[in-house]
């Protein structure tokens, strides 16, 4: 729609400027007509519209709009209040862009905050200039006051009466002699109620300790002036907040004679600042303190004096995402409001507070000298408060939560460290099944932090060449010949030293790095297999050496598995029968044809597929016929009893049955974890084909396999 059409952007912008001018014109001291004021506000409205739709928030533009209001003589605090109300109600309506309503409302709120800051700064600068002019006039007129105010009374009176700020003159005993109209209006509009007061009567409970000390120094002639923020009670009991400047006026001989007070009414500004402060430190949905205010309180608690302690409960709702996804965010918001109300009722004792950190995460803090007991009671109250279902849209929703508790003395940890420990502990409670609370444990924290550090350093570790491979020989039980080796990746970490696969493979699977890492292991292993075959050929009873490489479930589902394997074998010039891919039994339980298809293609090419950890997945033995495997790797749990003599008869029968079944299906059997000669002999008698374990060799560099193969080849 073009700008010339009735409902074009320019028309909507003009409509917003019209509404704005009508709102502020009655409280603006200006000689302009209302349409003329509208023309002044139109470019300011355009700047706000652009700021609302800008890609990034620019606070200085909004601050400039606030300052421009002051320049346009919209200096009454009511003008700012009406402006903010107008922007809040109509800016998004008439000037909104393509963003969501929540985004636009959030941007509008930030624009209001910046406008208020710019308005306050500009008004203060203008007031200071005015104060300086008045002070200068007052100082020039002090001789007039001392001489019955007869020499330049007219000039001083014009400044005195026409000033926008309150001015009062009193003697050194505090008796008020003169006040101007602005000051009278500040105190309710009746001059007599001000003139009959003594300065010393104007005390207020929130007076800073130094205020009256400064006053005494001034009337004694020890100080020329002072500037403070001070509150006064009006006759109707309401509070007037001011920026107060008090100066000493001396006579012609330099002796103290009068005191001059300049008052700027900051009540509306203070209320506005309090409102903005509240919005900045409280959650808009629940009304609870937000992350900002919580950290302020937590840091204060952590820097308390000796003997003070703190207790922190970090709560995360269990299954909240399911409620959001199934019932919608509006229902989720109503649930959060109800949970917030319940939590608020749990933390009512002195030193306790509840805050919302964001999403469905809440924290409860308690402070004092006996928080070890109090924090446990607080957590129990929270868990009990969540027992009753929450009614949302006619549905009774069950609410559960996981809580991590951190408790300790003040002064030992930072706020970030405490919250990190609570977060880690909360996830430990969630991992244990949820609907429970756990106490922080330093060792568990250290493990979690180490895991996080390993996770973040994994992506660059491969590029830095920090991984290496060790090889554990596979030995034929019949003749003792070396048939190959299993490739086992290790991580040489700069801080933690050599890490075994169980320390980082789960992290690599979680982050997806297992795919490039697994490809690197496959490339290195196949290259090593080629070197072995070139060096030893088919010497000895074992024939060409074979390399076994583990395949993770994540790699198994990767679409490039088959092509990557083919490319690696072709680049290395190695036949497919030199490679055996090991897949855990648990990864193939219930596998459909789509998952098995890549393995079948590899098996058809000549790559051996081994079913690793067989016996731990509780799979149906009949399923073996449909799996494209040629080798069973029997889990060590079946053969551990064979390290003793005599071996457990039940274990012997189980292994014998598995071997018989495997051979009937033309599957070879490999046994892991062989540690004694007696164990190896028993497995040989039972018909197992190959074995690996410490009895033969621990995982090591490829040269160790060279030595074993050389011994085997030379007899």
Outline the structure in words:
This protein is of the alpha/beta class and 715 residues long. Helix content is 50%, strand content 19%. The chain has 25 helices and 21 strands. The strands form four sheets. Strands 13-14-16-17-18-19-20-21 form an eight-stranded mixed β-barrel, surrounded by four helices. A five-stranded antiparallel sheet has the order 2-1-5-4-3, sandwiched between helices. The longest helix has 46 residues, at 101-146. The radius of gyration is 41 Å and the shape is elongated.
Quick recap:
The chain has 715 residues and is an alpha/beta fold. Helix 16 packs across helix 17 and helix 18 (514-536) runs parallel beside helix 20 (561-572).
| CA-based gyration radius | 41 Å
Tally the helices: what do you get? 25
Helicity, in percent?
40-55%
Q: Tell me the strand order in the biggest sheet.
A: 13-14-16-17-18-19-20-21
First CA to last CA: what distance?
92 Å
Number-wise, the strands total 21
Low-confidence stretches: 1-6, 538-542
Q: What's the rounded overall pLDDT mean?
A: 84
